[in-house]
Specification:
Bound molecules: zinc ion
Distance between the termini: 32 Å
Number of domains: 1
Largest sheet: 3 strands, antiparallel
Number of helices: 0
Radius of gyration: 14 Å
Helix content: under 10%
Shape: globular
Strand content: 15-25%
Strand order of the largest sheet: 2-1-3
Order of helices and strands: EEE
Length: about 80
């Protein structure tokens, strides 16, 4: 389980997607633009957050000293229902 990445069991529920929203870095205590899983670019800590909530404040997690503390969305949570 210790591979440093977000984990999932069923590939049928996860898709790869290219979008500039995944490239943006967000400072601590700024609003999360989308619901999903965000990762600290400095230490790899992952969090789940809802759209519109504040990302964690600086030093709110055991961050690796000397690295940048910023959040990058790695998994987007799609709230729309799917009817197949
Ligand atoms: Zn960190």
């Amino acid at each position: 389980m210790e591979n440093g990445m977000a984990l999932y069991q069923s590939a049928q529920f996860i898709d790869t997607w290219t979008d500039p929203e995944f490239d943006k870095l967000h400072s601590p205590r700024t609003v999360a633009p989308h619901s999903g899983i965000y990762r600290c670019v400095g230490c790899g800590v992952e969090i789940a957050i809802s759209e519109g909530q504040l990302l964690p404040a600086i030093h709110a997690h055991p961050h690796r000293l000397g690295t940048r503390e910023a959040w990058q969305m790695v998994v987007y949570a799609d709230h729309r229902p799917k009817f197949t």
